[in-house]
Amino acid sequence: MSAGPYVLRVNGNDHEVPDAHLGESLLWVLRERLGLPGSKNACEEGECGSCSVQVDGELVCSCLVLAAAAVGREVTTIEGLAPDGELADVQRAFVEAGAVQCGFCTPGLLMAVDTLLDDLPDGGDPDDLIVREAISGNLCRCTGYGRILEAVSIAADLRRGNRT
Amino acid sequence: MTDVRTEEPRTVQGAPRIGESAPRPDGIPKVNGSFAFSSDLWHDRMLWGGTLRSPHPSARIRSIDIGPAVAVTGVHAVLTSADVPGSPTYGLEHADQPVLASDVVRYEGEPVAIVAADHPDAVRRALDAIVVDYEVTTPLVDPGLAESSDPIHPDGNLIRRIHLRHGNQEVVGDVVVEGTYEVGMQDQAFLGPESGLAVPAEDGGVELFIATQWLHADRDQVAACLGLEPGLVRLTLAGVGGAFGAREDLSLHAHLCLLALHTHRPVKMVYSREESFHGHVHRHPARMWYRHHADRAGNLVRVEARLLLDGGAYASSSGAVIANATCFAAGPYRVPSADIEGVVVRTNNPPCGAMRGFGSVQACIGHEAQMDRLAAALGMDPVELRLRNVLATGDRLPTGQVITGTAPVAEVLRTCVDHPSAASLSGDPMSLPGGAGRTADPAHVRRGEAVALGFKNLMFSEGFDDSSSAICRLEGGVATVTCACAEVGQGFVTLAQQITREVLGVEEVVLAPAATATVGSAGSTSASRQSWMSGGAVQAACEEVRVRLLTSVADDRGVDPDELVLVEGRVVSLSGDFEADLASVTAEAIEAEVEFRHAPTSPLDENGQGDAHVSFAFSAHRAIVDVDCDLGLVKVVELTTSQDVGRLLNPLQAIGQIEGGAAQGVGLAVMEEVLVLDGRIRNASFTDYLVPTALDMPPVEIAALIEQPEPGAPFGAKGIGEPPSISSTAAVVAAIRAATELNLTHVPVRPTDIALAGA
Amino acid sequence: MTIARTLEDACTALAEHPDALLLAGGTDLMVGINRGQVGFDHVVVIDRVDELRGWRREGDELVLGAGLTYSEMGRGELPVLLPALAQAARTVGSPQIRNAGTLGGNLATSSPAGDTLPVLAALDATVVLRSSHGTRQLALDRFVTGVKQNALEPEELIEAVRVPVLDGPQEFLKVGTRNAMVISVASLALVVDRAGRSVRVGLGSVAPVPVRAIEAEAFVDGAIDWDTGSLPDAAVDRFSGLVAEAARPIDDQRGTAAYRSHAIGVLARRALRRAFSESAP
Question: Cα distance from B567 to chain C (closest Cα, Å)?
Fold first, then answer.
């Protein structure tokens, strides 16, 4: 059934969603109506994390958010992570660590890692178990998570300003 | 439409070459979200496609009424088997699988009809509106009964039988151990759903943008089904979200093209995760009986085995899988006498085919369990027993083939075993079996450790005329490489650049899209073959360009071409007399296309004997597990591995393959099984088909990557993708046996197998 | 669609659209919507209703807002006041799910495997329901009535859950075949009320609804030396057996009845031993 047009605020910009159907998830609207296909659709039932975005700073599965109900929230997707075309620290770290193979899990993982680093208190390397728990909602079938953990360590360094 | 060119041509600082950890050229698009996977494609005026699938594993189709579906608002096409203009069937080894079912369905999920409509909601409504009158029949679900049951397919229920007999058949060992093992059905569970976009072309053909493993094999099958000349069916690789064997067969390819040609509109289709479980082949479940004979000193004397693989409804690549399982059933050991029969049969269970490891995974579970059983019977250390029997160059396999390439098996095993363990006894409840469920207390946990050794052939076998083509074009100092090798995440795109830089000394290497229209087949991204075959093709094409360039420059200068080399973007004479900028001497393009082949192999004869394989790779894993025996919950604490790699082409990418393959091995050992009951999948979702998360996967310690260059292999490099998924499962299961002292014979090991073992 | 700002908004919207779907975290509802299995005419979005969020203490009781997320259950003072609930929340899904999913959602879904439900059962929780007609309260065992069935009337929404603040150890244990994102195969919540000298046990995934192991509780209340906080092994064994008898599990793709019965007995033993040592110190 159709919903009236509504406005979503994504990556700092307002986007009007004109011909929406009410039942469409935020993932669907991002990908198919707003031209932001960076968030991925590996399962569409909240079991893989490939669709992860930040809504008001919190990591959620965009496939489980009703798009029309996200009005008034700040949505950040993978496309909004890198300011002006430069790579964000987490993105650089993933490339450097060899943490990208097929890349399908990568956007969701980057959102999870970005959230983790935002939430960590300053100082020290994030504990291995804390990192694993923070990304436990993101399935990766290619890497076995080894290089991803290395990337988190590199990104933590970058974020603390220990490296440039 | 979306730009499917997924690599950013750019000049790389330092131009990393062979042996270095060059960064992937598609890394940046993949981390910034701009990389176009097949499910991200979009086209103006495109329609959405969907598939109606059989809810029954076995039924006759009495009638199909598409009228109500055609009447749904927004529907542009509803097609059935009657609308398939060309060959009604397709298949990798045998064209035994219908594009759309006509009179019978043979597995739950078999495609019956396809729909194109304006919006996925309309597609769903149309699919719901199609009325199929099924006469349900009793499915054949026990592979043990397949050969004695009525055929469920005109080709019969036996897909392939191989009976390998080697050496003196009368010999009996002083010590004999028997065992029967079961391996459940694993799923590749790649993250990128089956998806693609078909665009009808003005010449009556069709452009298909698809995620797949073998563009040209797909094209040939699709063209045959469409009744079109292959040249009219043009496939371009769209971004692939993992494959692991599941994309070697057609899934939605022909369906998309049919809908596009019928509606004269671009059509996109994306499978849901549930549909994906029904939409691709799985790893063959196996029942394996073994009898190992040894003398008192621990030398293997004879191995007998009976392997039964359930191929499901259609043949796919089952013939090659059973050949592998049979050839490698006894493991990487000297076996003077063998009687091994491998059978793969047809049932109404979900179709099975290629998955990373391809028959060797199941075999390794069996042979390593047997070696441990034998060690126990002999009172011998399991590692000592293996070392006593491992293969080496010059040894003969149970297929009669002598290993002429490298085989550092003993070194693989020793380096793995000798590597110090970093596993500690953590007090954190999150690191115990059960994790956040807090079910275990340290007193309830037993630790076990074990080692497993595995091997497999690299590349295709049994006389298959395999090849890969590549084009190298050098113009204005920039090299462009065209190869149809499907990049599925393994990093071939990185290697292609490294090889080109190595041969031509260029910095900027552009990779043209992988497509059928512009270059010959690169073969399948499977069998750990692409570094050898497509790497070899790229190397050969670049080499031909190098030779032609230097000859031309030498002619101009009146010098011997051997005097000239390509270094860092310049042509330089060894004498130091002159140098020229590569861009200037390649103002006119130089281009070469090469079709690369490996040395030929032979078929297997009626006794399974023959020089059937090109090369072999070996790996070992040591697993340490913690087991909560009362609840049967397992935590894999550490994996250590050594692997025979020939030559490391890109260390960082190699680590990625080794860690990733081990994760799939861990999954099969403790949690992954497609549960099939009466032909129906009970867990077609990520809710209940469990793959390891970051909290399930241990660190993978690499003890040694053994580089003994393989003769005949480009750069001496062996393929590295499959071995990590082979010995890993066997090692984890053996470690669980050590911790529990239970005779565990089903893989994956379920909590109930441990907790209720006495019951 | 109505995006409610207040409880009154929500109740008014429900009165106008009695068949409307209620949407907070969406972690169960959206799965069905994505599959096209859930038809609806109206949605009332309640994730911004302040009255449903957070929690407060009222004397010896905690009033937990239906909008309390799993992540919030693990923050601040709640893990100290309700350790079993915090432990249960940590086992739900993934960080993404825990940020969105709510206590009210877990109750409204009424799954036999709902992770907070055994805890609420052990705490004798009261579910507070609200509509434009007023408020009513139901004990948990009156609220959850069957597999994915509950006593919510049309136009009603879950406003809050009332639980006691108890003095004593609490445990929550959950069996799953993976360490994250796993549906419970069997789970157990054990809470000790020292002042009342009683142990309460809630079981999950071993019956159509969350159950209390009443006989086991009655037995162990008498077996514990409440002055020293100890009890003998034999009593633990008996307790474990009685808990297993309270379970009515089934076979499904996640586990067999036999395994679940066995597992729940093991969980009972371990939870009790964590709460009470073997002998007087």
Answer: 51
